Amino acid sequence: MTDYNLPDILLLEDKTKRFLTWIPDKSYIVLGASNKAEDALFLEKVKQDDITVLKRPSGGQTVMLTPNNLIISVVFFQPDNLQPKAVFNQINSLIIESLERVGVKNLAMRGISDIAIDGKKILGSSIYRSKDALLYHAVLNFGEPASTFEKYLKYPSKEPDYRLGRNHADFVTSLIEKGYTQSYTHLKNVLTNSLAKSFIL
Description:
Elements: E1 2-3, E2 19-22, E3 28-31, H1 37-40, H2 43-48, E4 52-55, E5 63-65, E6 69-77, H3 84-101, E7 107-110, E8 114-117, E9 120-129, E10 133-141, H4 146-152, H5 168-171, H6 184-199
Parallel strand pairs: 1-4, 3-4
Antiparallel strand pairs: 2-6, 3-5, 6-10, 7-8, 8-9, 9-10
Helix pairs in contact: 3-6
């Protein structure tokens, strides 16, 4: 297991950038700060398929990132007066507005920091706060089948109220599964433009 070293961690060091939208180069499993691999993962399958496991400094539950996800990251400097709930609401609202503009329907904020379509999770997000910065990062599931998460991730130790005991396969969906037909690149550009209008220096 390795400390979190994915592209958005550099936002904490480079004060010329406020946000990043990016696509993972391969599959990763990222443990939340309080998660243990043996409790969160089906370790034999993870090792068998040589999935890289990282541990992030932010809270929340274990997530899996794949090349079929779009990662959205935003950094705030001097965040003393920022409340996590307000940050989640601000950025998740922006993401919902962007998705609605490209025809995605029935979106809603659910749980502490999720976005769902028809009650199924489409995006999860978490926050890391240091002395000088606050980093929001989210995983938007563009097209990864929920069966992938079911294969590697155990049922989490904590769950949002709307999960209602559902396993990964019944709880998670993707934009493609919900009928989204435009390209990955188009969606990435739409989200990047929306973030630029709000967060570019």
